[in-house]
Write a structure and sequence with these properties.
Layout: H1 3-26, H2 31-55, H3 61-73, H4 85-109
Length: 117
């Protein structure tokens, strides 16, 4: 890829990033819409990987070496990680802990001492 193509790709990628960030900002406060955006990006990643990318994989040792060298030097294989359910439950567990603490506190404060009877 020559310098002009590299600059063109870079500007195209910046434009894509800007659009995706704008859409994410527009969805702020709507977790279902944000989830839809993430699903769409994941599907796009899969389509590119399984289609055009695989069609263009190296067919000789020199090109394979070049690809592997680039993967190693530029940060590894592209991957879209999914959140674990535990990460989604972090806020919920904090809320439950607060409710449990409040229930325990309320129970202790309003506890009737029957030991003197």
């Amino acid at each position: 890829m020559n310098h002009d193509q590299n600059q063109d790709l870079s500007s195209q990628l910046q434009a894509i990033s800007g659009v995706v960030k704008d859409v994410a900002q527009d969805c702020k406060g709507d977790v279902i819409a944000l989830l839809g955006l993430l699903r769409h990006l994941e599907q796009l990643h899969k389509e590119i990987r399984d289609g055009v990318f695989q069609e263009n994989l190296p067919d000789n040792r020199q090109r394979l070496y070049s690809l592997l060298k680039d993967i190693e030097s530029e940060g590894g294989w592209p991957y879209i990680a999914r959140m674990r359910v535990q990460a989604l439950l972090v806020n919920l567990s904090e809320e439950v802990s607060d409710e449990e603490a409040l229930a325990n506190y309320t129970h202790d404060v309003f506890k009737i001492d029957n030991s003197s009877e």
